[in-house]
Amino acid sequence: MESSPSAILKLLLPKTPFILKTALWHTLGLAPTSSKWDLRTEITINVLREMVGPNSPGSTITKLQRLTTKDPGVKGKVWVAKVKLDVPAEDDIRQLMFKAIEEMGTGEEQWTKPDAKPLEGEWNGYRAGARDDEPEPTGLSEKEKYEHLLKEASSKVTILYFHGGAMYLLDPATYRATTSRLAKETGGRVFSVRYRLAPQNPFPAALLDAFTAYLSLLYPPPDAPHAPVPAAQIVFGGDSAGGTCCTALLQLLLQIHRSTPAGQTPSVLFHGEKVAIPLPAGVALTSPWIDISRSQPSIEEAVTYDYLPPPSQTDKRDFPRCEAWPTDPPRADLYCEGSALLHPLVSPLAAGDWHASPPLFFSVGQEMLRDEDAVLARRAAAQGVPVVWREFEAMPHCFAMLLEGLKAGHVHYEEFGKFCREVVEGKTVETNGEFIVAKTMVRRDADVKTGLTELTDEQVVEYMQKGKERIERKTRKGEDASAESRPML
Length: 489
Prior knowledge:
By secondary structure, the chain is an alpha/beta fold. 35% of the residues lie in helices and 13% in strands. The protein is globular and about 65 Å long. Keywords: Hydrolase.
């Protein structure tokens, strides 16, 4: 999105009275968040609420995508090397994914088989010697930029990163500040995937791109700039809907392993060679969205510290018609058919089996997605998966990316980087949880196995089923959809 001073001024000028009122209430201690937030956070989050709340002007998906996928250019402390990798000549990875979808489903889900497409993305690394406003060097090829990136890497960490944006917004280009910071914290490099966006490319197009990206790191096609990356050096990373991609890809890999006869290594034909399909070193999640049915209690109740619009605000709203939405024939959800909302590769919260998963890292705020994240963390830990849980008091969705300079943001990046380094270095990761107090950053132990949530698995299933039914009812002709929708994240 455009971020020039003139564009920001044009956006904020009409909100001056609102900003002044917000500042006054915070200063007087009258805001419910005054004791937890500083003034900058108070203003930022409240302006965001105004921008996405009930009084914000409606915009079409086509216009939103045009705005949020615009490349802002490369400047500052980041190396960027763009890549476009060829499609494998054989169709094996598509068919292997389709087989897993069928095995994990009920047989009642409807979904469209996507075509294979060239994989696009970019390598990002930390450029230590650059000024914050310094443009990237001129006259370098993408391969030469990648070589410069490699020279500055000091560790073997490779993060396969999936951006957020509710599966229909944003682009790797808009995440360079985040991926540069992750490269700095880990000493490694980041491959940021440009997965296909919904609603034009519904499930499982993004999952196919994620699977292709992982195999392409392990076994580079001839046109790739990188050498093969061992699975033990790869960490899946993602925020919000990028967390959907991470956990769905992990479940796909686990299912492929589960369906392979004992004693055998799962494999697939990829660019003319039969290759093994290993698991990554770990998965690092920032405010992951893992329940596409948008149905757990916190998504309606945890609004005090979040900026995402609650159901009471979104119930009566819909996107204006455009070439992208609604689809023809109508589809219940932007990302998938209504019948597929509870498939474990659509909503990974529906997956019950996480045995043999590599270590998982969660960084969450006291946000609307907290319940689903807590349930997954508890479930995985109970099955013997090492889980690192970091919950930040009074912090909203993806706070570290929005609130630059905040103490909690620094702690988030430090913990994220530490986890990635430890799993790649082969250090033993023990399950542990911490609740990090606002402002002071005092840490309190949190019991991942028993202390994160009181929701039972049975309640989670019931909530998800009701959420699916509500979303499906929205598309039924003649029915009032005002109480059926849930916020798009």
